[in-house]
Every structure is written in structure tokens, then in C-alpha cells.
Amino acid sequence: MKIISDEFVPANSGWGRPMEKGQILRLTAKTIIDFACVNLHNVNERFDQARTKVYNMKLWITTGDVLYSKLNNPMMTIIEDQFAGMGYHDLQYGTCSGPRYARAKEEGRLNQYHHGDDIPIPDHGCWENLIDGFSEWNIPPELIPSPLNVFQHVDIDTKSGEIKHTPNRPKDPIYVDFRAEMDLAVAASACPDLAAPEFGQPIQAMIYEA
User: Fold this and answer.
1) 53 neighbors 70 (Cβ within 8 angstroms)
2) Count of the separate structural domains present in the chain
3) Per-position DSSP letters for the chain, written without gaps between them
4) Cβ density class 80-108: b for 16+ within 10 Å, e for less
5) Residue ranges making up the domain that contains 49
6) Are 210 and 1 in contact (CB under 8 A)?
7) Nearest alpha-carbon partner for 153 in 30, 37, 42
8) CA–CA separation, 158 vs 26, rounded Å?
9) pLDDT by residue (tens digit) across 40-57?
10) Which residues of the chain have pLDDT under 70?
11) Which long-range contacts (CB under 8 A, 24 or more apart) does 109-116 make?
12) What whole-number distance in Å separates Cα of residue 37 and Cα of residue 15?
């Protein structure tokens, strides 16, 4: 293994780096990681949740599945998933954000995060962190892709369509490996994760060559 970069990402902060085709990104955590990517040579080509679900014919993806762009191109392949058997990565939710938390508090819905309505809320979240992660490439905030929410297991009622947060998280840090299928700019957020036992946790982001 040749390590290109290996970085600690503090809780509720963002990270971003370029990657070459064939390189591998390892994201390690015991909390939610909001993750997205764009074509390094055409930042208008971005990761797309819907295309990813359609091409894999799945609501949840794991080892061997591919992340697709809005332009129908493969961007990354999951080559190892230590969360498999514990839970699923979410492809339904968008990013959390300061305004989203504020609105949830105003509407009395913070109990959806499993710690009750009277809990401290962050002034920013994954949306703002991904803006920071992609800042080198000047991606406008409104064009930040809806992410793959790594380690965010949600319950989906296939009859009613209802989606529920769950507190299902890794007890110890585990990782997911993604192989780049094109040159990419990648960004990740160490989510403040109000559903986790200690709220936000740091993450580790490593890029390497096999």
C-alpha cells in the first residue's frame, strides 16, 4: 500500500482532496460521514443519488456496487465495506445543516434524533462542511451533491414510504474503501450526528494506491 494522504478530520468539519483514477479512498469512523464526489476535470459532473440507485437497482449499496454521476458515468466502486452485516449506508437523505437543525427545533422534531427535544444543536452541519471540502473547486453551495451517507442506517417502510432515523452506528471505528473510476475531487463531512451516543465524532480520510 502506497499512502498518498492520511488525515484526521475533526468532528463537524469538512475535508476534500483530488484523486486520480485507480486510487482508493478509505473513510474510517464510528459516526455518519456525508460523502460526495465530482469529476476533477468537469465539476458540473457530480455524484447522483438517483442514478446510483437505478444503476445498482438497490436502495442500499455495499461492496461491488458503483457510485454514478448525473451524466450516467461510474465514479467510484465500493471495494470493501466493514459496515456490511451491521447496517446500510443511506441514499435517501440529503445533508444536515445549521438551518435544518434550527427548523427541527422550532417544529419540535429534535426527538427524531433520539435524544429528545431539549438538546444542544450545532450552528452548522454536513452541508456547510461539504462546501468547505469542495472550496478549492469553487462549487456553489446550491450545487453541492446530495451525498452518500456512510454509516447512516435508516429504517424504510416500503408500504408507507416513511423513513426513520436510527441510532445504529459502529461501536468502534470501521472503514469503507472506494476506488476512483475517474479523476475526482472528493469531499467528506464528519457529521455532528445527533443520533449518535456522543453526538459528533472525528473521522479519518486516507487516499492510497494498492
Assistant:
1) no
2) 1
3) -EEEEEEEE-TT-EEEEEE-TT-EEEEEESS-EEEEEEETTEEEEEB-HHHHHHHHT-SS--TT-EEEBTTS-EEEEEEEETTTTT---BSS-----HHHHHHHHHTT-GGGGTS-SS----S--HHHHHHHHTGGGT--GGGPPPPEEET--EEE-TTT--EEE-----SS-EEEEEEESS-EEEEEEE---TTSTTS---EEEEEEE-
4) ebbbeeebbbbbebebbbeeebeebeeee
5) 2-209
6) yes
7) 30
8) 31
9) 999 999 999 999 999 999
10) 113-118, 197
11) 110/194, 112/164, 112/165, 113/165, 113/194, 113/195, 114/165, 114/166, 114/167, 114/194, 114/195, 115/194, 115/195
12) 12
- Whole-angstrom Cα distance, residue 139 to residue 124? 18
Q: Look up residue 157 and give its three cell numbers.
A: 417502510
Looking at residue 152, its amino acid is Q
The three three-digit cell numbers of residue 122, written as one number:
450545532
pTM of the model: 0.93
Q: Which residues of 196-205 are buried (b: 16+ CB within 10 A; e: fewer)?
A: beebbbbbbb
How confident is the model over 164-182, as pLDDT tens digits?
888 898 999 999 999 999 9
For 1, 60, 181, the CA distances from 22, given in Å and listed in that order, are 13, 23, 6
Rounded CA-CA distance 39/27 in Å is 19
